[in-house]
């Protein structure tokens, strides 16, 4: 990566408070044109790190440079033009229209009582269009949905024309569709507007799909930074939330409970989609699924799925055809209960 692409860089940075150091010797870089997601458990220190990067909370030691200049040397006015911040807090500006609220982001350039010139108005309109909220430009903020309000706050950060934008849990209050829309928007803005964008989030699935880089924050390993796929394939995601009963599914990019199967079942399926959802249902009901490579062994319980309504269950040589997972699971529960009762009676 070109050195000119580095927006902010940290070397041996310690963060925390006067009487408590939260992390020591953190090293990191954020790059122009990239979306980076900061992941970690609740209370792990993500907000503390974001506050340190925005210079609202000083680093305890180490060096943080912003555009090649020590961040501690920036004046408040310079910082407001260089770093845009979008916080988790809900917006209490219901009496302002969308355009009026977005216009407040120009204050670092115009001053609090500054007059908006045509160039400022052009920047404001560009930001409103860039986040896809133009049709609501004259609506009051109180009339917007949570997702729309979050887009307005991102537009407000955009009009600051800062090369760095930091967001603390921007999707925290949003439904699943709005979360995806916001993440897609941020990735597009990073690319098209050539911003370095860092956001903290618990939306791991979307982060793995859309983030160019990940910052993984844990008590054990501190801050691990890298391209998303490099960290995933290095099995670093399991270190993010250490719990023996919850594992990262490398194939599907999600966290899921460790399978506690009481009984083996040989599963074959017509395609990966059928296999995935069949395995999902079987794991949930206490079955550990064996793959096709075990076909040579004569397992007493086998399931062959050639379609969503073509499920063939073979138990001890007897075949049972099911046309739905409801029918299949009911049958398996009954057969399992019968087998357990026989075992108990014996």
By DSSP, the count of extended strands is: 17
Q: Indicate how many domains the architecture comprises.
A: 2
Strand content: 25-35%
Task: Please state the CA-atom Rg, rounded to the nearest Å.
Answer: 26 Å
Q: What's the total helix number?
A: 11
Name given to the CATH homologous superfamily of the largest domain? P-loop containing nucleotide triphosphate hydrolases
> What composes the largest sheet?
6 strands, mixed
Mean pLDDT equals: 89
Category from helices, strands and their pairing: alpha/beta
CATH class term of the largest domain: Alpha Beta
Low-confidence stretches: 338-346
Biggest sheet strand order reads: 6-7-8-3-9-10
Description:
- It is a single chain.
- This protein is of the alpha/beta class and 346 residues long.
- It is built from eleven helices and 17 strands.
- The chain folds into two domains: 244 residues, Rossmann fold, CATH 3.40.50.300; 83 residues, Anticodon-binding domain (Rossmann fold, 3-Layer(aba) Sandwich).
- 33% of the residues lie in helices and 29% in strands.
